[in-house]
Batch of 2 targets.
Target 1
Amino acid sequence: MELFEYSAYELSKMLQRKKTSSEELVRSYLKRIELINPRVNAYITATPALALDTAQSVDNKRIRGEELHPLAGIPVAVKDNISTAGIKTTCASRILEHYIPPYDATVVKALNRAGMPVLGKTNLDEFAMGSSTENSAFFPTRNPWDLEKVPGGSSGGSAAAVASGMAPLALGSDTGGSIRQPAALCGVTGLRPTYGRVSRYGLVAFASSLDQVGTLALSARDTALLLNLVAGPDPHDSTSLPDRDRDYIDNLTAGVENLRVGVIKQNVADSFDREVTAAVLKAASLLESNGARVEEVSLPMIDYGLSAYYLIAPSEASSNLGRYDGVRYGYFAPGKDISEMFCRTRGEGFGPEVKRRIMIGTYALSAGYYDAYYLQAMKVRTMIRREYEEVFKRYDILIGAASPTPAFKLGEKTSDPLQMYLSDVCNITDSLAGVPSLAIPGGFHSSGLPMGLQLTAAPQSERLLLQVACFFEQHPETKPRRPELDFIESPPEEGGM
Ligand code: GLN
């Protein structure tokens, strides 16, 4: 077995037993990136020198017998909307193409403190707006299961990197599905934690009341390891939650007996791919035959989630993106007066989807329309929250599809924003409710592509989600698997990094 085939947990054990070194690990991942990234385009920026530096310093500490974090020496990839001091953080946008942040995000500080070598920054839809990573201003990422398909988005780079063995772990961000949908399309485990569980300090803001940093990994155990490191309160983020449940590992193997499980009717809809729906129902019966109490549950507010999200998120985005004016940092285009300078800077710096969101958001917030759109959407959000509160009095876990279909073709939805928005229909209400939500492998479609299940629980129930995920991993049909990369032999195409 090659090093990239092991889970982060196994690699951590190997490092602790000195069966390998962090330097050896990093070198093997860098080789893998060199081989695969030209075809998959998961990374915008690779940081080999920095990763090797960190690895060597961790190896030296280990030799000296210093006490190390369990993830010390394990490489990691970081989505390119998470600030890294001294390393370009582009948000896959022309407006930040050359931007080098002067500070690290709190989560990046945690990676550094633990001694995790950062392999590079991964591709995304511009400012995390999108569901296919095709809105990147630089290049689309491809799905390692089928290079003609999208990896999902917006954390498509992180999901594709983990799926193809270009990183054992990755950080992503999820506003309305951006970790879970790509995880589903790439066959990996993607966690959106409870809103506030992980600090957002240094995550470039898209829609602040929804944005959440989370993880992409190969298994529940690897997810728990990384969550243990990045979760927790942060004085720099006033919305971060107080400490609680800090060990996400200790009840992973507790099983599913007596759990009250609700199969979300709206997330096994007739309009979904039939095999996806069948996979969810099969997973539900697996829970039942192992002692869980399973029922169908209807969450009628889900039908309003997408409309509310696509008013609230653009409204917040229109305000958050006001800061890109070319004055202090980022892309700058001169003009004869200040107004022309702003117009040119923003006109040339932002891509079409970002402009669309800014326009929708500005409209929804404008005097005369505020009550009809933004305020109405906020009322819907409150009703969604209440519906979740009620449902979690009766169920411990909700299960549904993580995406209505497996990965779709590159270019298939780029000319129809509404179709693109619809690909998050399973993920969005969990985001609006602020609850933790986990996408896990749910078997394979007849096309050979992975399908994802989504597990949802009450706020701060990440341990329960991971426990159920761990249960599914023990079963042959829902066991995580890696794609065969038969394209490795052939020469890469032009373009990309
Ligand atoms: N695809 C959704 C959107 O375009 C969600 C993106 C995200 O979660 N960052 O807004």
Target 2
Amino acid sequence: MALYEKPSMDKLIEDLKILKEKVYKGGGEEKINFQHGKGKLTARERLNQLFDEGKFNEILTFATTRATEFGLDKNRFYGDGVIAGWGKIDGRQVFAYAQDFTILGGSLGETHANKIVRAYELALKVGAPVIGINDSGGARIQEGALSLEGYGAVFKMNVMASGVIPQITIMAGPAAGGAVYSPALTDFLIMIKGDAYYMFVTGPEITKVSIGEEVSYQDLGGAIIHATKSGVVHFVAENEQDAINITKRLLSYLPSNNMEEPPYVDTGDPADRAVQSAESIVPTDSVKPFDIRDLIYNIVDNSEFLEVHKLWAQNITVGFGRINGNVVGIVANNSAYYGGAIDIDAADKAARFIRFCDAFNIPVISLVDTPGYVPGTDQEYKGIIRHGAKMLYAFAEATVPKITVIVRRSYGGAHIAMSIKSLGADLVYAWPSAEIAVTGPEGAVRILYRREIQSAQNPEELLKQKITEYKKLFANPYWAAEKGLIDDVIEPKDTRNVIARGLEMLRNKREFRYPKKHGNIPL
Ligand code: HXC
């Protein structure tokens, strides 16, 4: 019997190159063409666009399924339908995985899940963000309960990593059933527009059979629906490249982990720059709506503001910017939508954003102009009490620097929910146009003087007179300032400078909480 003779190194390397070539071809030419035919890039092409050139390092490259059922033993692919690893994005270390739809529809089985989990484990050890590019038919049917177990393991990693490293998902294909929940557990979801991209718990076919409702894939779970109605999606990308660009822009505001400060950038915009346009942007007439973003763009460095959840709950605006080079999270009422009143979606949106900022050492700036919480049965039945409480909880819980600027109306529970001194705000400023009270003038007067108005000879006149008196007392910042609730009343043009100085003073802020397992935010 001839002894096994190990081939030469040259031959071994040649064999390795052939195998690697096979790995890089994913599910093969035909499937790649099919993928391209849908307007989608392959997993490898996506990673190439995401990472700095030549800087991606793959892990578990050759790992494949152990399953044999339904012919899987004859249908194995290296990599098992997901590429995982780490690399540099704009010079910073980041982990990523990209599901490869050309291999078994990017479906998730035991090995596939294990690769994602391993990437997360490494990312957690070294404190680096994880980006998931999802493009998958969901749980791999042939691997039965092992696929479901795999999802469980991924979800657990999402939760373990929450608040430790930033997690971003790019929705770059379908996601059905439980597969939607990993994206939902991450911090930010970027979804691409177009027919090839959708996510839902129950698809159109089963929806029709079970409740008789007919709906298209896009109307049920397209990017626009999730960005405007469900609030599942934070950013809509015009196309694949746009999704990568948004991801990079978002990363530029985030620290790599919860032990780091967010990245400082010398923006060249002077901290004491006067916001000359501030006065003309905000009408003193409190019923006149305006778009708070016009003010935000003028306050932040070089007008660069990355708005989060831009198309959902537009009555509150949240997003990232820089002041004097330092990253801030901004939470601002927007009177251009529902008069800036807070409803359940706005409360959810703000609370989640504030909690993200707090977890990752990003100071929060509140710009206040709200008449209160939205009244009516619709909101009460949906639980404005429960949802509104989330904002209070998020601000009170946050230990990052918190600065509030009241630019116009600040009424009732919403006044508190936008962060005031007793809730833990470090600094509270008001413009001369601020109005601070328990409730708006007409409502207040009707409650305080109900009997007098009813029995008055001219009720309308008395109402008007009392409203004027109430406005005189409360439609200004000075009553509250005299009581020590406002640190200073400032000229609108000084807003940026005042915030910059406050942030500088608060840089080394330390605030401690009672030890506990975790709080119980009203969900
Ligand atoms: C195994 C799958 C698969 C899956 C797709 N494929 N989904 N293989 N398990 N879940 C395979 C197909 O058999 C096909 O293989 C290849 O991937 C491409 O799929 P197509 O159907 O040809 O692609 P397309 O027409 O683009 O349709 C995409 C799709 C459809 C809409 C996603 O594939 C689909 O409906 N898949 C099943 C979705 C599903 O019900 N998943 C389970 C959800 S529940 P060949 O060899 O023909 O190329 C779930 C539970 C998670 O995920 C629980 C977590 C708690």
